[in-house]
Design a protein that fits this description.
The complex is a heterodimer. Helix content of chain A is 50%, strand content 18%. Chain A contains twelve helices and eleven strands. In chain A, helix 2 packs antiparallel against helix 9. Chain A starts with a helix and ends in an 11-residue tail after the last helix. In chain A, 47% of the residues are buried. Chain B is of the alpha+beta class. The longest helix of chain B has 38 residues. The chains are: A alpha+beta, B alpha+beta. Chains A and B meet through helix 2, strand 3 and helix 9 of A and helix 2, strand 10, helix 10 and helix 12 of B.
Amino acid sequence: MGINTLLRTLWRTPAGPLLLAAQVALSLMIFANVAYVIYTRLETTARPTGMDVDNIFWISSQGYGKDYDQRSTIQLDLEYLNLLPGVIAASVSNAEPQSLDALHTQVSVAPGLKGAKMLALVYQTTDKVINTLGLQLLKGREFSRDAVLPPSSGSALKVNPFGPEVVITEDLATKLFGGSDQALGKPLYFSLSDGGSATIVGVVALLLAAPRFGLGWDFAYDVVLAPAIPGGSTAIYFVRTQPGRRDEVMAKVKKEFEALRPSRYIDEFETLTDTVSQRRAADRNGAMILAILSSFVLAVTMLGLFGFASFAVTSRTKEIGTRRAIGATRADIVKQFLTENLVITTSGIAVGSVMTLAFALQLSMLLELPRLPIIFLTGAMALIWMTGLIAALIPALRGASVPPAVATRAA
Amino acid sequence: MLWHDLRLALQSIRCSPIISALIVLVIATGIGTSVMALTLYHAKAGNPIWWKDDVLYRVLVDSRPASHESDTQQHPEYPPFTLIYRDALAIHQSKIPERSVMEFYSSGLVDSLRPGARPLHRRVRVTTHEFFPMFEVPFLHGHGWSQSDDAGPSQVVVISSFLNDSLFGGGNNVGRTLTLSGHSFTVIGVLERWLPLPRFYDEAKDFGPADDLFIPFRWIESIPELWMGGFCLQTISGISGFKALAPSDCLSPIGIWVEMTTQRQRREFSDFLDSYAREQQRAGRFGRPINNRLVKVSTWLEMNDVVGNENRIHVALALVFLGICILNTLGLILAKFMSAAPLQGIRRALGATRADILRQHLMEVVVLGALAGLIGIGVAAAGLRLIRIWVFPESVQPHENPDFATIAQSLSHMDGKMILFALLLSLLAGLLAGSYPAWRIGRMAPATFLKIQ
């Protein structure tokens, strides 16, 4: 049966095929775009943090009252935590992990922000921080214990709150200096401290500070670790334990820690695993909802294609019988229905790809995503083709089993 | 006659149970998905103080420096959403509006001074006395503070009912003392549960729990422990603490709301802001053309993009999906009607008019649509329940603050209006999908069917 005859058959009752093609077009539009959004969301949730996430927990301690002294509290707390059996290292910081609480500041290669500059997140922290977070030191060394500044008081604008030496991430080193080697030993200038500067003594491979990535979050990996005990009355402790001993150490600390010092209480107490998972929950949930939606889309489209092919086979039983009687093989019949299906899906896909691209343009604007990579369009096309063929195969096979004798029977 | 149509429709549905079930299921899935997306959208799109939308204004002043380096936000044409400390003080002085309120969010440690009680880290709204009447905050006990309390500042605090419960175990605690970050305050008011969603009076994206304490604005000058975070556009960096912020030209977290009922007030106040800005320009501040705005609450929520593009896209996707479902059912209904066509041919031959056939088939479509609507509402309810478990785990796990459960509930709640809308939408979907098939079957000449027999 030639393609012309086939098209003419389809055109004789155009409503069904047209409806189906429209459905395929819309499905392609949704499917390709949604798959891309899901991909970006999942990619975001899978980005490495650079930390030894599974063996770290953190504590947020809050001091209060006149008797509270930030400096001695932190000093004694760190001594206690570092001496606990099972603990690899503990450090203090000014910000919760995976939050935007760290100081945002412009850093530059020259005083007065004259040279190359970037917005970076600054953790005020203590020595051993690289070991505590399980970071990979690429170049240089960690800052020394002597470099750690006492908690600043008064106007943060007037004193350098960051200490004389800093460790930065490779991302930041590359963006500012062109590479870790070039960055080592150079001064880094802060906008926050009236042009104060610190020497870069080390470069770590990776550290993710912010809760998200992607457009508008390009500073997420640009982190400065600066040796200073955070001011105020909040202290965030990070504790890294030997593999497998986190929960045991955590339970012990939870029991003892609050009573250890007067005038303070524990605000939060969490594993880093939980924190990272919570910060990524929105993206993960979004992806899940969209995945369900797109599976619905695919299922309904498949149903449509299946229904159409079934209807075609049922209503043309007599025609099939006649064709078989005059010499068409079973394969011919299967081919006829599959070709019909392909004609419909292909025309739907042709219209659909234009719609997909138009929709993708809107979507990338609204969600601030890069343009839809073409692989998602071609992938979705292939998937819908396959789905269509599979959906039509069962009715087509049923059609092929119609015996030629049907032709001779009266309806 | 309608009764007869209904009977025929039910009979026809019974005759082809599988295809009817498919039709209902497909529409129901489309309706369920759309209603879910619309519910989530609707829950975020509300204005919790809509009745004052034409009298409340957020005051925005373009205090940015001339350089555009810091313009990273999506709408560089918007003035900053908060004010520089000294500008806030100056603008708050104006007597033109009926009411004017300065406010910002802070947090501190609260202690009930009961032996053995732990201090609690709580949200503090640092504000001026007209906050309560302006936003119509309901009091359970006591009242807000006065203008002279603002000037003092007096050691007075208004607390939420949740804090009242967790600190004092409930009851009327007006007159009792608590400490906030080491300073003692007397409770002069306890609020009724007040949970505007979203918290429109600050940067509004927040569907978080209610503020727990309200203290007179000037306390910021004498309690250094109160958190106050700002941002310097000049150096593009964060800054915190009152001591650092107050003398600087950095943006503080302070916002000003004014209440004005007459057009004249609005004009005068607008002129006042412009002349203030011109004065600052002459003094070498405010590096850009005058761009001050008085923003209505509804506009403020839009500017803050409370609903979010993600929600909009979900609605768009769900509606397109509903479209796919309708196209799909159109095919299914067509097939269903056509397969029963011979029967209709007999009815026509026996005297039924075209209108009869059309009406009878439309009735069938309406019945299918209504069934789909009911199931769709069930689908949406189940989906929203799932979403509540995934997205708002607070609502299923017990939490000491009941606000979390309320927020989760309100963000995923399908109200009566939405249910009605879902039913209408599904009837519409049924009619959209069924009209063409019904029309076609009604149009056919009876002979077409009879001669096949």
